From TrEMBL:
Domain D-isomer specific 2-hydroxyacid dehydrogenase NAD-binding: 117-188, 221-317
Domain of life, source organism: Eukaryota
Lineage: Eukaryota, Viridiplantae, Streptophyta, Embryophyta, Tracheophyta
Oxidoreductase as UniProt keyword: yes
Name this polypeptide is given: glycerate dehydrogenase
GO molecular function: glyoxylate reductase (NADPH) activity; hydroxypyruvate reductase (NADH) activity; NAD binding
């Protein structure tokens, strides 16, 4: 191989490996056992010559790594993730390194986990499982693990991009929930999903429900986030993490939610003030959360793990075989494409193949 490409982790599938090695790359996959590589670890991996790196969301891709990669002649970095809050894109630009991410292939998988957490929280599935395993079940009772019926309730979606829109579609279509969403921008994607459901020809979904004796579902775009907090029974967070969404859900906003609401987060941990959430959960035992992400991963804020009204899973929203193989393939394509000087690969499902494709090397 002419080009030296490093993957900081082993990734699922073999297609991404074949892509690289069949296209003039010598691929080195880091076998270091520790889960999270430090900046120093990665600088050592990059060494004196490296053309591109596939990295992970646990790594801090900032000034130090991009300057090291640039010094080694590297032109491309891809995160194996759609989120890129671990990547300093300005630093990458400064050192002439193009940055890629892996959107599109994880949309449905991530939305399905948000839906799974919604159901698990509404029906208290984890608590009930623990109860069974603890040998506490001694017979059916009318009050045992009573939860919430989703049908007819309102689902709130905050951040209506690809993932938020797919989640909205699942909850509305699958569970006949009413929908309220908040996004700074009107989401044609989400509105296409819902109007597609409500107004297909020859008969609208609403009319279909009415004709079958069902109450039609309603939907609207909220004019403020508070409107969603106040009206929704389940709220799922799907914004990107940046300065404007850090602690988007704080103590004051939690207080605006219904006492028996359910909050789901499959975006990034710092979108919620997790310490404030722990206090809120303690004070409101009927309030429930489903969390895939945490403010200081891999840690949880003190007290969270003891709460029955919290479901916690270890950042697995994109963890389906198809998706993870797809993410690995896209990450490899990002790096390979840039190295080979191809125009940026693009298809309709993939709107941001490179975040900064016009990056120029420093003069
Ligand atoms: C996972 O969290 C991702 O951003 O892909
Ligand atoms: C990420 O894929 C999003 O825009 O929701």
């Amino acid at each position: 191989g002419k080009y030296r490409v490093i993957s900081t982790k082993s990734m699922p599938g073999t297609r991404w490996i074949n892509l690289l090695i069949q296209n003039d790359c010598r691929l080195e996959i880091c076998t270091e056992k520790k889960t999270i590589l430090s900046v120093e670890d990665i600088i050592a991996l990059i060494g004196a010559k490296c053309d591109g790196v596939i990295g992970q969301l646990t790594e801090d891709w900032g000034e130090e790594l991009f300057s090291a990669l640039s010094r080694a002649g590297g032109k491309a970095f891809s995160n194996m993730a759609v989120g890129y809050n671990n990547v300093n894109v300005d630093a990458a630009n400064k050192y002439g390194v193009a940055v890629g991410n892996t959107p599109g292939v994880l949309t449905e998988t991530t939305a399905e986990l948000a839906a799974s957490l919604s159901l698990a929280a509404a029906r208290r599935i984890v608590e009930a499982d623990e109860f069974m395993r603890a040998g506490l079940y001694d017979g059916w009772l009318p009050h045992l693990f009573v939860g919430n019926l989703l049908k007819g309730q309102t689902v709130g979606v905050i951040g209506a991009g690809r993932i938020g829109s797919a989640y909205a579609r699942m909850m509305v279509e699958g569970f006949k929930m009413n929908l309220i969403y908040f996004d700074l921008y009107q989401s044609t994607r989400l509105e296409k999903f819902v109007t597609g459901m409500f107004l297909p020809s020859p008969i609208s979904y609403g009319a279909f429900l009415k004709a079958s004796g069902e109450t039609p579902v309603t939907w609207k775009r909220a004019s403020s986030m508070d409107e969603v907090l106040q009206e929704a029974d389940i709220i799922s967070l799907h914004p990107v993490l940046d300065k404007t969404t850090y602690h988007l859900v704080n103590k004051e906003r939690l207080a605006k939610m219904k006492k028996e609401a359910i909050l789901i987060n499959c975006s990034r941990g710092p979108v919620i003030d997790e310490a404030a959430l722990v206090e809120h959960l303690k004070e409101n035992p009927l309030f429930r959360v489903g969390l895939d992400v945490f403010e200081d991963e891999p840690y949880m804020k003190p007290g969270l793990a003891d709460l029955k009204n919290a479901i916690v899973v270890p950042h697995i929203a994109s963890a389906s075989k198809w998706t993870r193989e797809g993410m690995a393939t896209l990450a490899a394509l990002n790096v390979l494409g840039k190295i080979k000087g191809y125009p940026v690969w693009f298809d309709a499902n993939r709107v941001e193949p490179f975040l900064n494709e016009n990056a120029q090397p420093p003069a």
